[in-house]
Structure formats: structure tokens, C-alpha cells
Amino acid sequence: MTKRFGHKAARAQQILLSVLMETLEGSELCFPQLLNTSCRKTGRPHFETMLIYILLSSLSLITAVLNLLVIISISHFKQLHTPTNLNLLSLAVSDFFVGLLIFFQIMLIDGCWFLGDLMCVVYQYLAYIITSASIGTMVIISVDRYVAICHPLHYSTKVTQKRVQVCISLCWMCSVILHSLNLKDILKQPGRYNSCIGECVFFISYIAGLVDLICSFIIPITVIVVLYIRVFVVAVSQARAMRSHIAAVTLQKSVKVTAKKSEMKAARTLGVVVVVFVICTCPYYCVALTGQDNLLNAAFVTFEIFLIYVNSCLNPLIYAFFYPWFRKSIKLIVTLKILQPDSCDALML
User: How would you describe this protein's topology in the membrane (predicted)?
Assistant: First the structure.
């Protein structure tokens, strides 16, 4: 009788231990009710997880708000409807969406995706499109500054608002078409590469990855660097010429010199934007170019993605530092003066 009772007690202890083990395992799963098919959560210390949450949430909010201010400023005030500012508007739109996409990245902190396979594909698809559109906009900005500095007499006839609008539209359309082709298999069958429920990953073919690398990085960066080297050389020579002849200019020429300085300042400001963009995006694409991404740890890959997010937040700060019209427009927006009649006709420059 004692042996039978001891056997039952031992059996009960085994069952209890088994239940406790399943509970502990279930607590580490994305979907505890799916023990055999659920993905496991990423094991991070609580302090580290909370720090990442706070950092990404703050970055997302600041990025979205600052770029929304740029979008409202350029869209509302008629005096800011210039070809150069239309390029900045396109860049601000892409950066604004980056700020929104950071919220999706926050959901992946613990390694679990709860929105389903379709939303995973939509998130990744939009991320590819926005990144390519940003790079394409940077190319358009470089061309704009190249024509303004190197061919100033033809700028007003070659660079018009309508042509810039067409170029920006083509930039976004090409980005959509390119990544629709690259990701067509994944768009048809979301979640085909997931190994468990709660995962948000996918792979593209070698050819598609190579096309994306060439079209979204190598060609645009080459064009940007070449054009801005040319702009820099011409800007330096023009600055020297203006300093050497400053004493002999007439009033009429003085106006031309002032206009030239304005173009030079715009070139310098947008040059800072381009340089910051290249610094923030090069690490990600350079790793892809070398093909050594599998050898790098997750921390470095996370840092690369974080740099891209930071770049979208830095652009409005650069505008605020260099452009008085942006600082003035922020005051009008914050104080709600843009709601007044005829506020769109306010003098901003």
C-alpha cells in the first residue's frame, strides 16, 4: 500500500513537473497555445527591451511630427512652391512614412509578429519602396543643384515646377514597379518563407537582390557623388571670382551676386542633406554589396537599420538649422496662424 502510494505521488510529481515545463516553454512562445508551430520570443533583459521601446517610440514620433511640419509648410505657403522645395516635399513624404514604419519595427523587438503574414509583406514592401523613392529624390535634388550652380542662366527654363513634378512622380512609380517585380512571388504567397507562426521574414532571389542593389544604390550614389563633386568645384571657383571682383560690381550686378549667393547657400544646405544621407545608408548597402551580411551579428544589422531611421529624423533638423523660412513656418503652424484667411500668401522668404 505504501509502495503504491509512493508510486502515485511520484507520478503526480512528474505530471506536475511536465505541466510546469510546458507552462515555462509556453511563456517563451509568441503564441503559447500553438506549442508545436509558434516562434519563440527573443530573450532580452527587461531593461534592454524597455530602453529599445522608448528609443524607437521617441524616434518614430519625432520623425513623423518633424516631417509633417515640412509637408504642411511647403504645401500651404504659396511662396514655398519652388522646384527645389518640391523635391524637399517628396523627401519629407518618404521620411514621414519611415517614421510610421518604425512602429512596425517596434512590434518585432521581442521577435514576434502578431499582424499576420499579409501585413508582414505590406510592411516590407512599403519599406523597400520608400527607401528607393528617397534615394531617387536625392538624385533629383543633386541634378537640381547641378543645373542651378553650373548652368544658372538655363535653370529657370530647364527646371520648372511641372518638370519636377513629373520627375518625382516617375521616381515613385519606378520604385513601385521595381519592387513589385522583385517581390512578386512573396506578394502572391505571403509567409512562404516563415518557419513558424509569428515570424516576419522573406528572401528575394539573387538576381532580384542584384537588380535592387544596382538600381537603388550603385547607380544613384554614383550620380549623386559625381554631380556634387562638379557642383563643389564650380561653387569654389565662383566664390573666388565673386571675392576678387566684389569692389567693382554695380548695383545691378550686386543683385545678381545676391541671387548667386542664395543658390550657393541652397546648394550647401542640400549638400549637407545628401552627405548625411550617404553616411546613413552606405553601411547597409555596402554590407549587401560585399555579400558578408551572413557573417555579421544581429547587433550590427540593427545598427545599420537604425542609421536609416535616424537619417529621416535628421533632415527636418537640417532644414530648421539652415532655412529661416522653415523656422518661420513652424511658428505659424504651432500658433495656428495658418488657419487665418489668406495665410497661404504670407511672405516666407
Answer: Multi-pass membrane protein
